[in-house]
Amino acid sequence: MLQSASFGSLPALAGAAAILCLSGASAAPGIDPSTGPAPSSSMGEMAHMSGHMFMTQLRPLSAGDREKADAVVLAARAAMAPYQDYRKALADGFRIFLPNVPQPQYHFTNYKYGREANAHFDPLKPTSLLYKKSADGGYKLVGVMYTDRVDASEEELNDRIPLSIARWHQHVNFCLAPWGQRAAYFGPNAKFGLQGSLSTREDCEQAGGTFLPHVLGWMVHVYPYEADEMKMWSTDDDAQGHDNMDHSAMPSMKMDPGMKMDPGMKMQ
């Protein structure tokens, strides 16, 4: 039985990652579905997302946290500087995650950087550049996404970007639909995926699905040109569509900061 989904651990993850993207969730650092056919379904409501998101709790501010976070912001700006023109990002090896699927925000992902991020943190090498579609058909660069491996401890995350400033998140309790039931990922009565009502191993397996305690690893988005610090480290679904989660995509979604996770999930 699969215990988690991470860097290229199973071919079906390309489909799972596509569901993540369609659901308004962050793109996958270790899955590369860009060469496959794009799903035809449009974004649906995310009434059950609260059972599929785990976020770190904000910690009290410690000495040096602000300076460390500010250094990451400066590095994120430096990393973004060469890529205001999205075509430069493509030329340098970043690939658009599901380019043919309408999204509030597009992840241009460097899979090499994503693999490297599992071992060490280099804020000058974000796993993904975050773009919004522009009126002329191009893309406007708005931020970056950093990642870490699925079993990274909160102390490691805190060492990378202080948990008093940023809240890292994981997509969890993912029930992969049996072959032939892909339609059940979407709509108001969705059963599988991040929109689905199935969020425990028992219920998922009873429905014939494959339960993944984790989908991908830890992620955090940074919008370094925002004047408001809350938007700079935004995780909520606000009107600006930060964290690839806008009200139109999932009006009912609420993220649970203290969600109980499945016993099979090992947080080291």
Task: Point out poorly predicted stretches.
Answer: 1-49, 237-268
**Care to count the β-strands?**
7
- Integer count of domains: 1
User: Helix- and strand-based class?
Assistant: alpha+beta
Textual characterization of the structure:
The chain has helices at 13-22, 65-80, 86-91, 111-117, 154-160, 201-206, 229-232; strands spanning 53-55, 95-96, 106-109, 128-133, 139-148, 169-176, 210-222. With 268 residues, the chain is of the alpha+beta class. The protein has one domain (13-244). It has a 7-stranded antiparallel sheet with strand order 1-6-7-5-4-3-2. Strand 4 (128-133) and strand 5 form a beta hairpin. Residues 1-49 and 237-268 have low confidence and may be disordered.
Describe the protein's topology.
Blueprint: H1 13-22, E1 53-55, H2 65-80, H3 86-91, E2 95-96, E3 106-109, H4 111-117, E4 128-133, E5 139-148, H5 154-160, E6 169-176, H6 201-206, E7 210-222, H7 229-232
Antiparallel strand pairs: 1-6, 2-3, 3-4, 4-5, 5-7, 6-7
Using brief descriptors, characterize the structure shown:
single chain, 268 residues, alpha+beta, seven-stranded antiparallel sheet, 7 helices, 17% strand, disordered N terminus
Summary?
21% of the residues lie in helices and 17% in strands. The chain has 7 helices and 7 strands; from the N terminus they run αβααββαββαβαβα. Strand 4 (128-133) and strand 5 (139-148) form a beta hairpin.
